[in-house]
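Recall that a protein's primary structure is simply its ordered list of amino acids. Everything else, from secondary elements to tertiary packing, is in principle encoded there. The following example makes that idea concrete.
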Amino acid sequence: MSARAESQSSPLDSLKLAAAIGLFLLGVVAFYWFEAQSVLYRAIGLIAVAAVSIGIAMSTVRGRAAWAFARESRQELRRVVWPTRQETLQTTMIVIAMVLLVAVMLWLLDMFFLWGVESLVRPGG
């Protein structure tokens, strides 16, 4: 996280965000409105409208902050020490073994309860 002071958003930024959202919603409506057209053309149009909407949204203070957050997140992902294949496989095997162990224990507990209920309910038992 950065310690930069965030500048205040202006009414123009709010208008830009509203326009971006409205444009995107209009693109979605148009996608379904022109259902007689090829899906390829409708998808290309929707992608183009989405790109323009994202461009408008990124020109706002919040959009620039979101872009900065995404960049910092990618940098942080590069710093993470990811487990090796062997560590991943060993951890997966431990998880599978524990799941099986708990499943067997629950099955045995269920059998015990079944035996108890049957002995109480069984006539002459």
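Residues 11-79 form one domain. The mean pLDDT is 91.
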